[in-house]
Design goal:
This protein is mostly beta strands and 191 residues long. The protein has two helices and 13 strands; from the N terminus they run βαββββββββββαββ. The structure holds 6-O-phosphono-beta-D-fructofuranose (F6P) and fe (ii) ion. 6-O-phosphono-beta-D-fructofuranose binds next to β3. This is glucose-6-phosphate isomerase.
Length: 191
């Protein structure tokens, strides 16, 4: 197989995570129907606040072949839906045996992980902290702060994304604000 020979350069602002030269993929709240536990608050926010931007990320133009590495930044904005913090959809990789590394550039949050066997883990994101997501674990970034949560990620380029499992089953756990602090609770909607 012919290997990729193209080098890639990208600029990512340390505070905002944004690039001046690349186009991001944006996920507004309406793209996350059913993912937050409180459907009523979800509908209200989508309709009343003109569908806020929950997160955006960069998918660079790197071949998705074995031996290549996909990398970019992911930016989760501050906000809540019925007490549940703004977060990414979360996904397994199609090649389930894929690890991924995230390095927090700015903001305050968590990486929530779970595997098909039902084990789950949560790790703190704060600037300078790297989190390793082990193979077989779905992963979701959660912003518990007042500023954007900015992380840099890298994983094998041929891993693919499996969104269907999370979209149909949900996550076992969710993170909500209680008495001004984040708390991990069982997801009442988990199937
Ligand atoms: O795939 P989600 O959960 O929508 O979140 C997107 C993030 O995950 C990644 O796929 C990396 O795992 C990035 O492309 C992006 O930062
Ligand atoms: Fe991933």
């Amino acid at each position: 197989m012919a290997l990729n020979t193209e080098s890639v350069v990208a600029d990512f602002n340390l505070l905002t995570g944004l690039s001046k030269s690349k186009e991001s993929t944006k996920r507004n709240l309406s793209r996350m129907k059913g993912m937050f536990h409180d459907d009523l608050s979800f509908d209200e926010l989508v309709n009343s606040e003109s569908d806020p931007l929950v997160y955006e990320f960069y998918e660079l133009d790197i071949p998705q072949t074995a031996g290549d590495i996909l990398f970019g930044t992911s930016i989760v904005y501050p906000g809540k839906v019925g007490g549940e913090y703004f977060m990414t959809k979360g996904h397994f990789h199609t090649i389930l045996e894929t690890g991924e590394v995230y390095y927090c550039l700015s903001g305050d949050g968590y990486m929530l992980m779970e595997n098909p066997e039902g084990d789950w883990k949560i790790e703190k994101f704060e600037p300078g902290q790297a989190v390793y997501v082990p193979p077989r674990y779905a992963h979701r970034s959660i912003n518990i702060g007042e500023q954007p949560l900015v992380t840099f990620f890298a994983f094998r380029a041929d891993a693919g994304h499996d969104y269907g499992t999370i979209e149909t089953k949900g996550y076992r756990k969710l993170v909500i604000e209680k008495d001004g602090k984040p708390e991990v609770i069982d997801n009442p909607k988990w199937k």
